[in-house]
Write a structure and sequence with these properties.
The protein is mainly beta and 788 residues long. The protein has a 4-stranded antiparallel β-sheet with strand order 1-58-57-56, with no helix packed on it.
Length: 788
Amino acid sequence: MTYLARRSRLVWLVCAAATIAVAPAQTPATYTETVLHNFPPDSPKGAYPYSGVIRDEAGNLYGTTTYGGIYAAGAVYKVGPDGHETVLYSFTGGADGNAPYGDLVRDSAGNLYGTTFGGGNLTPDSCMYEGTWEYGGCGVIFKLDPAGQETVLYTFTGGVDGALPTVGLIRDAAGNLYGTTQAGGPANAGVVFKVTPSGQETVLHGFTGGADGGVPLAGLIADSAGNLYGTTRCGGSGTLLYCNGSGAGVVFRVDPAGNETVLYNFTGGADGAFPQAPVIRDSAGNLYGTTNGGGTGLQGVVFKLDPAGQETVLHDFVGGTDGKYPVAGLIRDGAGNLYGTTSAGGGPNLCDWGSAISCGVVFEIDPAGQETILYAFTGGSTGGGPQAGLILDSTGNLYGTAAYAGAGNNGVVFKLNPSGQQSILYGFPTGTDGAEPKTGVVFDSSGNLFGTTSQGGTYGFGTVYKLDPSGHEKVLYSFTGGADGEYPTSGVILDPAGNLYGTADGGEPTYDGIVFKVDPSGQETVLYTFTGGADGGEPWGGLARDEAGNLYGTTILGGTADVGVVFKVTPSGQETVMHTFTGTPDGFEPQGGVVLDSAGNLYGTTAFGGTANQGMIFKLDPAGQETVLYNFTGGADGGVPYQGITRDSAGNIYGATWGGGINPYQGNAYSGCGVVYKLDTSGNQTVLHTFTCGPGGGNPVSGVVVDSAGNIYGTTPAGGDARAIYGKGVVYKVDPSGNETVLFTFLGDNEGGVPYGGLVRDAAGNLYGTTVVGGEQAGGVIFKLAPQ
């Protein structure tokens, strides 16, 4: 599974097995939260520069990052000729915007102008696109003065005015700004717009998604007569149907009166398909650009379009060393040579995004159509996956960005001299003490807490940390992203000697996950590396440990049917597959790990499969014989139990499900907001509480802890206070009669928000956990809830 696929799935699928011992009952009326530690943002200097750079007369470069900054909502940065970076502005993700993807434009006074994909209008359902709600609004157009003061010039509403701009702007002599949005407009297929210096927007053309094109992902250029030129990824009359059955994209012109002319319809064949980059124009009126697909090898093309609408393919990418999948536009020198980038292809080095493909190239194409590879990215410190175009200085140096990799794994700004020698001008760093803790914590007898962060650390691949009772955090280990693993999304367990055990993604050479041990001095040992074959792959859940030191867990992939296994790893690192899931009858994708009883039986859940394909609870005896204890229906009894279970001394099982229940919720793919349940030793299930996604929370993704009186405690990452978009989650208690009490409601502010991980509870009734976002530094918190 690739890096980007992992990260998108982890939005809802991360969970941690609840293997916490039963604690004495406490039934206080209220709880008070204390933030024990504030994690900094993963990338306070910015991360993932999807945009290119612009250059001023002093040689300073300016650009945006889509992620990172103080609030993890993107940043505007400046890199001086000496390589020193200054963050000019960090977006908060609110009214000021969220996630800038496009290039900047700069006026003679030094003001910068750009767009953000989200933010602005915080009404929850104001910006639906392809079935999802995006980033707290529909995007903004902003101005940033030389002092770093931001002014929002226009906020998109998601109506006929457009929504979700991913491109930069162009500016005319009167200060008017022009651009495109990929959504909104009369048919929700995007618009071409103009915004005056006072912030007045005019829609020049609203795409229908039909013959006129649709979903413009590229910016515009203008000629001296005020005509605008651009591309759309969808629509047109091409024979290759895309975007709900409508064409493979067009090249268009919009005149000053708003009349659109389609200059070329891509067929999706050898001529290319799905252009998502702007075009450039020479003095004779020829247009040049790229397509992301099509061509004889379906890897994209570089094309020329003459004033008569005749297209010539200048280069057809074959996906080898010449590169593939260009997503950025071109620049052209005085001799007619074209320069650009591809997001993939180029060499043997594999980059862990897209489809674990090679890392992209910088290319030159001469007027005869001969391609020369100027530089092939390796995905290491040199960066990889460039998503933006280049700029050229008077001495022939090229400047650009690579969105990924680099020393901090957050992308780079680079320079390429005429000899093809690359210099890294700036590598975006990561927060060294970790960020985004997506699991709960464990504590030792001295009151120290231990856990993992899914991001941050010295190398940007996550950490194992310790927090002492005074609130001092120590990073015990920073994952490097190599053979030692990356992005741990499960918690750790602790043995009597103080060793910590857990699982992580990555692990060379197949990157299918590892089982690791970290000793008290911070020395990591990889106990087992999964191959993704019969032995399993992608261990997302936590571990259980027996008295002999054997570790037990689950993987969501691998096995004979590639739907997951239950495994055992001995102290010497010998792995045994105890059970291979086959699919629907016995379940698949066990994401929550297992718990172990005194007889050596293992208990756990699968997120899917079972008789209704809504997941099930299973038992595995020491011989590996599986018994299905309960099949979820996805109805009132719950469905899709991503999380593990807790078992009491009588053998009753307690847990929660992400979906199901009797309160349908439009925000997830399954009916309902989840339930809290009990399963007795006879296999009878009782729903103790049904979530509504309202003030009581919704869609729990972590396990529960149970006290000796039968009270159940847990977290939800959604629901809670309506002042936070879709809610930022709650900590809840459900008594044996099924009455829920919300112990704490997160707002995503300094107290944290979105608790993915479960809880631990001490003898005094204090609850400890983590949040993914919020805190004073916006990188999540470790919290304590004390009974009052």
